[in-house]
Amino acid sequence: MYHDPALARKNKVTVYLNAHEEAFIEAACALYGTSKAQVLRELALREARDEFGIVPGSAVKPRQTAVTHG
Question: Is the CB of residue 8 less than 8 Å from the CB of residue 2?
C-alpha cells in the first residue's frame, strides 16, 4: 500500500474530549466529509507546524526568534 513503510500510520493516540469539543469535531467531520481521526490529525499537525515554524515539504528548521536584551 505504501511505497515507504515508514509512512504507514500505525501509532495510536487517544484524545478525551468534552461534549462541546466533540460537537466541534463532529461538525468539522460533517463539513469536510471525513473521519474524526483525519480531522484531529490535520489540526494537530497544522498547529505543530505553525508553532514551530515548519513549512510543509521543507526540511525541519525551527523558526528564528529575535533575542532581546533588557
Answer: yes
